[in-house]
Amino acid sequence: MKTQPVRVLLAEDDERYARRLRKNLEAEKIVVEVAGDGEAALSQLQKETFDLVLADIKMPRMGGLQLLEAVKANREAGVDRDLPVILLTSVDSVKTAVEAMKAGAADYLTKDAEWEEILVHLNRVLEHHRRSRENELLRRQVAAQSPFGEVIALSESMAAVLKQAEDIAGAPTTVLITGETGVGKELIARVIHSRSDRRDGPFLEVNCAALPDDNMFQSELFGHERGAFTGAYEQRKGRFELAHGGTLFLDEVGDLSLDSQAKILRVLETRAFERLGGNRKIRVDVRFVLATNHLLQEAVDAGRFRRDLFYRINVFQIHIPPLRQRPEDVRALLQYYEEVYRRQYRREPLEFSPEAVAVLEAHSWPGNVRELRNVIERLSLVRSGGQVTAESLRACGFGAAGGSAERALVSLPVEGASLEDVERTAIIQALDRTGWVQKEAAELLGISVDRMNSRIRKYGITHSKWKIHKQAADRGEEPIRKGSAAEKSEND
Q1: Is 380 left (phi over 0), alpha (psi -120 to 50) or beta?
Q2: Is a pLDDT exceeding 60 seen at residue 488?
């Protein structure tokens, strides 16, 4: 797809400087429109769309600061208040710079700055604005496509899971949810409950793995009568009874003993039970949703799980894929949890650099969404806003002691992995380790620079360092090291 050229509005009353700066910007394939003062610039912003405004602080009728304030206050209809504005001045004044940044300027430059410096600042502001827009679009996309809170379904596989959950929600059928630890089985169970006609009833969860003792488990589920055992001083209702009219979620059902499995099977078939120490039948109207991280068919074959119970609960199965198989959900989850913990801990926003996102997307995530959530919470606690880089991730413990993307290269998941995923992970690791210098990364992997470039294009890997002078390099030109924007034009 052909990308649209960058459009810049230059508000400058010095025609000579404006002409020279425009010529230099157009040499970088940037479309430039010139306005003679702030009022003319505002009028232009109402008619056309721009990616950036460059405005001189001192101009007749309306100066750059007044133009900036008008944009940020959204005083004029049709003007984007989020449009980045870089202010230009002839004087290198700290006071003026502080005033400009406080007013909301994206950056501040002196007119005698070297052309290379101007271009670097321009690219940095444009890149920051592009990421901000992408994050906002992503936030809206997540809200529109996944109105289930933490259940992010931008990937096709998770969208299919949500569709299954919604399709089965209206039926009274028992549902079995399978998937690795941390993929969000409880969240899908809650989606089923919230979309069912039992949504106004209770949703109760029992973690079967947390109650390994049969007596504890059965007391928790069935309740007990007074005097049923030592310490039973009063009657207590169990989860089955408390979930009447709603949904009971039995998590990690594969960890139940055979004795408890037999009792669960009887309740599933009869919808009736007795409290411990009692003999009165209690009937309940409960929807059962069960979950496990075990391969139950293998457990049945090994004699660890009852075959009749397996057939009884495996009426409708929903399998949640691990996070490593849906990397397109990683960035959306980053966005979601960053906002959650920013509000919870009252922190400044975190912005993830392209290399940090690449490292996170390449990570094998053995703990799945739960692991990612913990990483973002830790970052929110140890950092007070700002940009998160690959180095920042390592500094806060990401990738330490067996959890990094590097381990994915030597520890193949049980279900296997795509060879392309392994190759992409290795390339990102090599680039990260060599400071994103392609030649050094190629040497580290023992491949040619041409092959490294081919793989970078194949996997769409990008880095901010590569964008400076990229267009000049494509034209076979040497990057300009010296001379201001005005000096460069004079020498042309």
Answers
A1: alpha
A2: no
